[in-house]
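step=encode ok
step=design start
structure_in=
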């Protein structure tokens, strides 16, 4: 079994988390401590789920939960773009990271079925 920290999906999710910490700094006060904190928590929880998936024999249920998390993250990022808290450039950049993680989770899920 690979160490969870060596998994490409873990590395991609960690990069996503760093990006989220970076761009939430510029959120207005109204959103920084609500949506910004939710984004951070959801992404940290996703990292924990990736660890759990890697350490389990039956991966399906935990992978489903991880896929749900990335969709919540995608939704919150889009909300922040629509509320003009994220520039289009940052939105495209962070969204490509979200898409990368999402594709890896989907591929991992398909390979376990």
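sequence_out=
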């Amino acid at each position: 079994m690979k160490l969870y920290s060596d998994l490409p999906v873990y590395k991609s999710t960690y990069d996503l988390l760093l990006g989220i910490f970076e761009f939430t700094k510029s959120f207005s006060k109204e959103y920084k401590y609500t949506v910004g904190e939710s984004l951070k928590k959801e992404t940290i929880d996703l990292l924990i789920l990736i660890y759990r998936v890697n350490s389990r024999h039956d991966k399906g249920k935990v992978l489903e939960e991880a896929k749900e998390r990335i969709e919540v993250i995608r939704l919150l990022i889009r909300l922040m773009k629509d509320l003009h808290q994220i520039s289009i450039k940052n939105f495209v950049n962070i969204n490509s990271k979200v898409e990368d993680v999402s594709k890896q989770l989907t591929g991992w899920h398909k390979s376990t079925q």
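step=design ok
step=annotate ok -> The CA atoms of residues 85 and 96 lie 18 Å apart.
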